[in-house]
Amino acid sequence: MPENSKKKNVIFEWFMRCFMVIVIYTVRIFLFVAYRPKVTFTGNSVKSPRLKSPAVIIVNHTSMLDPLMMLAIFFHHRSIVVAKDQIEDPHFSWALTRVNCVIPCDRFNLDTEWALLAKRELEKGNSVIIFPEGKCRYDGLLNEFKTGFAFLARSTGASVLSVALDGIYKFGHRTQVVVGELEKIERVKGIPSSVHLTERSEHFRQKIWALKRQALNLPQTDLPTAENTPAEEVAN
Predict the structure, then answer these.
(1) CA distance 44 to 130
(2) Considering only CA atoms, which of 177, 182, 175 is closest in space to residue 54?
(3) What is the pLDDT of residue 189?
(4) Within 10 Å of residue 100's Cβ, how many Cβ atoms?
(5) Which of 55, 76, 90, 229 reaches 20 to 30 Å from 126, CA-CA?
(6) First to last CA, the chain
(7) CATH code for position 139
């Protein structure tokens, strides 16, 4: 590649990264002004979005704005797991490939690379935000939680922080964010069994369900286990 072309590419990338910094701060301000998130801390282990130590932050998923809201609230020292197909989508790739907080995950195939990247982020002192459902659900229930977050927390010793969003993004409505307690998944030698990881995932699924009901200001009700939760009906 000619020297002039290399210099132009370097200048272009520098400009784009500077532009992305402006976009990030602009989006954050917009979210706080438009939806005025109210963050409620329910326990004693977490009293601020500025966590004292890196954690695996798990969240329910009901809107495409959920990841932006989580990044806006937990603004410092955090990374987020994003579907690889979204990163590769030309509509989003220009932005997602130029921010340093995105961890790609192939949700359609067996993928372990994301866990290695997430482990490095935790080791650097950055929390990792994960949506264990893997996709949005709009009927009020929760999908089965994939076990990747439990494996990551158990293998690294990082605490799990459960967070619930009411998923309502309307002008005039304050988006409710309810933060639970930090919780450890016992770290032991050897490869964790799938049964244990599934049990832990279901435990946190039920925990986030209770937090979500609180975020929506609804009475507490039982959530069917993942295997007994009906699939979401897709509107024609």
Answers:
(1) 22
(2) 182
(3) 66
(4) 9
(5) 90
(6) 51
(7) 3.40.1130
Return the residue matching tokens 């690294």: 156
pLDDT tens digits, residue range 4-60?
A: 777 778 888 889 889 999 999 999 999 999 999 999 999 999 999 999 999 999 999
SS3 73: helix
Per the domain annotation, does 147 fall within a domain?
Answer: yes
Taking each helix axis from N to C terminus, what angle separates 194-215 and 148-156, rounded to the nearest 10 degrees? 110
Distance of alpha carbon 194 from the chain centroid: 22
Domain span including residue 166: 3-228
Q: Which two tokens stand for residue 21?
A: 């910094």
More confident residue, 159 or 111: 159
Number of domain units in the chain: 1
Sign, CA dihedral 136-137-138-142, equals negative
Tokens, residue 86:
């979204």
Q: Coil, strand or helix: which one is 40?
A: strand
Domain-embedded: residue 236: no
